[in-house]
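Lecture notes, unit on binding sites. The following record was shown on slide 14. It pairs a sequence with zinc ion.
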Amino acid sequence: MTRVTVWTEYRQERNDPAVAAVYPDGIHTIIAEGLRDADFDVRTATLDEPDHGLTDDVLAETDVLTWWGHVAHGEVDDVVVERVHSRVLDGMGLIVLHSGHHSKIFKRLMGTTCDLNWRESGDRERLWVVDPAHPIAESLGEGFTLDAEEMYGEHFDVPAPDRLVLISWFSGGEVFRSGCCYERGRGRIFYFRPGHETHPSYRHPGVRRVIANAVAWAAGPKGNAPERRDRPEAPEMESSGD
Ligand code: ZN
């Protein structure tokens, strides 16, 4: 069974009544609930735990890590960022959610600012599937609508995705690349846009389906870790037999 660690800051849910009203037990609890319903083996970890809950042992037992952060990206210890980074290169999947676009780990993996335009206006958001052959699009049909969300608009300063699965349109008129796939080393990375802390998007069946599909897609590399050799002997080749 695929082992998932759901990581969030878990700060605004404790400090801001408007956020606590939507996610009284924390955003991580609701993301974890959706993934357990999809039959994944799920644990949670949050910023204020020792090592942010992301020790070497936890990461060694994690096939896919999901990441939600917003107001405290700078408090994430560089040692932990390095640990997560090397696990991704070694094959751990990473699902970066919403304002996680500005997390240290996502910016490190992308190598760009990951800046975007945003507006907390409760826009209606329509998510369109633009790659129906991709596993993350399974069971989504043409897409789905969120009645109220924060707007994220282009330009989103990320490298061109290896595969773009979803595009968002907002009632203000903006568009955004909202479901982006990347590979780094042997690790698969998916950025997924919805999930502002004052909207209940992580309870929405379409959002839950995307996250579950993304976890299944990102779980574990299929090939072995390559061996690195300096000046290896040329491999013996079979004779063609003539
Ligand atoms: Zn937000």
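Take-home: Residues 205-218 form the longest helix (14 residues).
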